[in-house]
Design goal:
There is one protein chain. By secondary structure, the chain is of the alpha/beta class. The chain folds into 5 domains: 41 residues, no CATH class; 221 residues, Rossmann fold; 172 residues, Dimethylsulfoxide Reductase, domain 2; 130 residues, no CATH class; 165 residues, Barwin-like endoglucanases, CATH 2.40.40.20. It contains 25 helices and 33 strands. The strands form 9 sheets. The protein has a 7-stranded mixed beta sheet, covered by helices on one side. β12 and β13 form a beta hairpin. α6 packs across α14 and α12 crosses α13. It starts with 7 loop residues before the first helix and ends in a 42-residue tail after the last strand. The relative contact order is 0.15. Belongs to the prokaryotic molybdopterin-containing oxidoreductase family. GO terms for molecular function: 4 iron, 4 sulfur cluster binding; acetylene hydratase activity; metal ion binding; molybdopterin cofactor binding; oxidoreductase activity. Its cofactor is Mo-bis(molybdopterin guanine dinucleotide). Keywords: 4Fe-4S, Iron, Iron-sulfur, Metal-binding, Molybdenum, Oxidoreductase, Signal. This is Molybdopterin-dependent oxidoreductase.
Length: 948
């Protein structure tokens, strides 16, 4: 096997030799060079593609291939959504593609599931599919299909089968362990309940006038707009506000920094809202017409309502005043408001999306957006905001009240006092006026007020919309209070008029194909027996079974694997996922080792694969063909296009899932014979159906013309803002796809699920292990830990075995304030122990004034590919080994992954196993912790033998 081994010194010598040969004189030398030039000239191709080196950002790239080998990856300047960005992870992808440790063949375990050698033996795909079919069928028959589950990861789009389809091939299981529960899912869940699903995505590409970056570092990587797009956005904004416990890389350039204490984001958001409301900086028209803010609350009546149709019927029961509360034949879907013009009650009808006396037609009057966009990017159409006048389709003008208390008589003759939802929200926010909020969230009162006013004060009122949305990210989901955090921020963007507006909250890009769910449920027929058992976690979290079951609760699932309750979990299939993403990693690892049968499809022998019975090799993104539409609000459509053929026996993830369906005798697609089990091209053609093109035509167009601007190609939907006025958000009716068809401050789903009213409004929930929730922990564990920050060369658990990446960042780091470090006797570069009641690990001290004294910032999902053990040394350095597995968000079960108490102390020979301060694996080898470690060279690309 040949490897790159040219050093700088040898390169200089080689260059000198080439230069000398070029200087040869004489006819013979010239003739010789001329004769050989054509034969030695390499075949070079440049392939336009979509990078998948991190998350789900759609960075356009050019891949240069020389003689069938990828030699360069660079940014595509014509890709408007990424502006030529090409980060370190993208460029290092060629090292992943040709990595000597890549899986190339299906393999099965021959040794017991201990820390030693699994005894991997190469097998054929035929044997792999037959074994999987037999074992999954056997276990489903013995225990039930739901005893099996699919585990997914960050997906790369084409490994989505664990999110849905895979369960059909495992006895009809409805259980799935997906990172949605800790990543984007809570934001989607929250917005899905109160506005529109995944409207947590912000159109950063539209360049807001005020850019708010909340709980993330999109300049490094993100799940929607990131890297250069975010940097350009912040640079061009009139004001850039950073909200984060630590000063992020780009945060050094922020105009305002709200250094919020971990886990208290909702307090800060409610405090901003208080400042905005009390200074009349909210969008009064949007709040009155498109939110439930004017709906009247009658606190002393019994809740009542109607059954909400959908994939699972859901009973709405609310104390919002309805026509049915006032008269016997009244509708429970007509919500009452007080009209200050007529001094009377009027209704809003959620069944039609119309106000009393309103006639609606989709908005067509408006103007082009006025954003500072790069040349050639379509602005989009902004419909004029509609009001309550006769010219807006009302029989008579009305003006819904936001303030005041009113006396009404219900149908039983009782007299009640009622107030608008807005009054209740205003009171909730007032509890966190800046001085009070500062005591909890740690941000100075004057900085809270400054940030809120900067965000909400319109810099160009003539546009008719706000300064931009809020790009809020993973940090708000990980403190055991995620749904309410997300609701608090969602409300902020709504009341300031930044919903479905330029640079506002726009949700997922819409186009003529989906492109996100290759292998997910929408494009799979399914079939076979379906489990009758309830989805894991549905009893613990009632929203799962009553509203929208998007995932199984990972903690309950792993507990069932240990205890057999509520029913046994005995195996499953993981596609590019890992057990370190949530919950306690040590507890999860023990569960995996106890499975009767476990399959992993991945590029590498990861820690998750260390517990597998069968491992399956998959394609790298440089080997994939797949259509791609922006997951977020970037508004782009394009494709990942194959640059090189995949090695040996590797398969595309959907083809692996399809192969299992075929082995189970289940159809994946419509058709006769083998049409039911399409190859990769057939899958792509299916996804592209809505475009009128098949893969060959679509990919050729993409190569020639580049990325599609969905605002241009889909003008009536993605190219139009304020779609709540056009019917595009609510199946042809005005408003939103919520029970009330309004953007809800008072959540009908939450009220109907929790009858004590605790979550009716956006509220602050203290993290389950804060100093206020569990003060007794802080005597022994006096510091607060946060984690999850973005690292320039890594993405979650990825790239630790790529030489270019690992030599730049050899060890996991824990940031701490130098003043804190000095008190603890810790210096820069020291290994330190980080310990909680649930576990302890080691990381390297990185002293940084950009984080508060008393707070530490650790790195997550570390594992050590160089450690020759089944778990690959994760237990030595992975911060989620410290997680209290029982500490969860009370609504959707998201793990409390940060904002919990720890102790920190210096690692010494006296307090380390066998005196080894540097973590050592079971094989006695130290982890790589120095960029000069010769083991890094063993991971250099291998070009020969790819087909062996």
């Amino acid at each position: 096997m040949s490897k790159i081994s040219v050093t700088r010194r040898s390169f200089v010598k080689l260059a000198a030799a080439v230069g000398a040969s070029a200087a040869l004189t004489g006819t013979e030398a010239g003739v010789a060079l001329a004769e050989s030039s054509e034969s030695s000239k390499p075949e070079v191709k440049r392939i336009r593609s979509c990078c998948r080196g991190c998350g789900k950002m759609e960075c356009g790239v050019w891949v240069t291939v020389s003689d069938g080998r990828v030699v360069k990856i660079e940014g595509d300047e014509s890709a408007f959504q990424s502006q030529g960005n090409c980060c370190t992870k993208s460029q290092a992808s060629l090292q992943a593609c040709y990595h000597p440790a890549r899986l190339k063949h299906p393999m099965k375990r021959t040794n017991p599931k201990e820390e030693g050698d699994p005894g991997w033996v190469r097998i054929t795909w035929e044997e792999a599919f037959q074994t999987m079919s037999e074992k999954f069928s056997e276990l489903a028959e013995k225990y039930d299909g739901s005893s099996l589950f699919g585990m997914g990861g960050t997906s790369r789009i084409w490994s989505m089968a664990p999110y849905g389809a895979l369960g059909n091939a495992m006895g009809g299981s409805n259980n799935k362990y997906t990172p949605n529960q800790v990543c984007k899912g809570p934001r989607w869940y929250a917005t899905g309940m109160v506005s529109s699903n995944a409207f947590s995505f912000m159109a950063v590409v539209d360049r807001p006038k005020v850019y708010v970056q909340w709980g993330g570092a999109g300049e490094i990587s993100n799940y929607d707009d990131s890297c250069r797009t975010v940097v350009d956005c912040a640079s061009n904004a009139d004001t850039y506000i950073s909200v984060d416990p630590r000063k992020t890389n780009m945060g050094h350039e922020a105009d305002i920094w709200n250094n919020v204490f971990p886990g208290t984001d909702a307090v800060l958001a409610l405090s901003w809202a208080h400042v905005i409301i009390e200074n009349d900086l909210f969008d009064e028209l949007y709040v009155k017409k498109w939110m439930d803010a004017p709906f009247l609350v009658c606190e002393d009546i019994e809740p009542s309502g109607w059954t909400l149709p959908g994939r699972s019927s859901y009973d709405i029961k609310t104390r919002l005043l309805k026509e049915s509360d006032l008269q016997e034949d009244g509708s429970p879907q007509r919500f009452m408001v007080w009209d200050t013009v007529g001094n009377r009650l009027v209704y809003f009808d959620a069944s039609t999306g119309l106000w009393e006396g309103e006639t609606w037609t989709p908005s067509t009057k408006g103007k082009e957006a006025a954003q500072d966009l790069p040349d050639g990017v379509v602005q989009g159409f902004v419909p004029d905001a509609t009001g309550f006048g006769v010219e807006d389709g009302f029989e008579v003008e009305i003006d819904p009240a936001l303030y005041g208390e009113y006396e009404i008589t219900t149908k039983d003759g009782a007299i009640h006092k009622v107030k608008p939802v807005w009054e209740h929200y205003r009171s909730e926010c007032a509890q966190y006026e800046p001085n009070k909020a500062s005591e909890i969230c740690g941000v100075a009162p004057e900085l809270i007020e400054k940030a809120a006013k900067a965000y909400a004060t319109r810099l160009d009122p003539s546009t008719g919309y706000g300064n931009g949305g809020i790009q809020y990210m993973l940090a708000v989901e990980h403190a055991g209070n995620c749904v309410q955090n997300c609701r608090c921020i969602d409300a902020l963007t709504a009341i300031t008029g930044n919903y479905d507006t330029p640079a506002g909250m726009r949700g997922p890009t819409t186009y003529t194909f989906d492109g996100e769910l290759v292998g997910g449920m929408p494009d799979v027929m399914g079939g076979g027996p379906q489990s009758k058992l309830p989805q894991i976690g549905s009893e613990k979290f009632p929203l799962y079974s009553t509203y929208a079951p998007q995932w199984s609760d990972a903690e309950t699932l792993m507990e069932a694997a240990h205890t057999g309750k509520p029913y046994p979990i005995v195996g499953g299939f993981c596609m590019s996922g890992d057990f370190m993403s949530m919950g306690n990693s040590l507890y999860n690892w023990e569960a995996l080792k106890g499975f009767d049968f476990w399959v992993v499809a991945d590029l590498w022998l990861t820690p998750t694969a260390g517990a597998a019975d069968i491992v399956l090799p998959v394609w790298h993104w440089l080997e994939v063909n797949s259509p791609r539409k922006s997951q977020g609000s970037s508004g782009a459509a394009g494709a990942t296009c194959r640059a090189v053929d995949p090695p040996a026996d590797c398969k595309w993830d959907p083809e692996i899932a399809i192969g299992l369906f075929k082995a189970q005798g289940l159809p994946w697609a419509e058709g006769e014979g083998d049409e039911q089990w399409p190859n990769w091209e057939g899958v792509c053609n299916s996804v592209l159906k809505g475009t009128g093109m098949e893969w060959t035509e679509f990919s050729e167009r993409f190569q020639k013309e580049g990325w599609i601007d969905c605002k241009k190609d889909n003008p009536d939907d993605w190219g139009t803002y304020r779609r709540y006025q056009t019917g595009k958000l609510n199946a042809g009716k005005p408003g939103f796809p919520t029970p009330s068809t309004k953007h809800e401050l008072w959540s009908l789903v939450m009220e109907s699920t929790y009858d004590d009213g605790r979550y009716n409004l956006p509220t602050f929930i203290d993290p389950p292990q804060s100093v206020r929730s569990k003060p007794e922990l802080y005597d022994e564990y006096p510091y607060t830990m946060t984690t999850g920050r973005r690292i320039p060369v890594y993405f979650h658990s990825e790239h630790r075995q790529l030489p270019w990446c690992r030599e730049q960042w050899t060890s996991p780091r824990v940031e701490m304030n130098p003043n804190m470090a000095a008190r603890l006797g810790i210096e820069q570069g020291d290994w330190v122990w980080i310990e909680s009641p649930s576990g302890k690990i080691r990381q390297v001290a990185d002293l940084y004034y950009g984080i508060k004294d008393g707070v530490i910032n650790c790195e997550h999902q570390w594992w050590l590919p160089e450690i020759n053990a089944a778990g690959r040394g994760f237990e030595l350095v992975e911060i989620n080994c410290l997680v209290d597995r029982t500490a969860q968000d009370p609504c959707v079960g998201t793990s409390n992954l940060r904002a919990f108490p720890v102790n920190v102390y210096k690692a010494t020979p006296e307090n380390c196993p066998d005196g080894n301060v540097v973590p050592v694996g079971y094989d006695g080898q130290e982890m790589i912790h120095d960029s000069s470690d010769p083991r890094l060279k063993e991971w250099l690309p291998t070009y020969e033998g790819r087909d062996e």
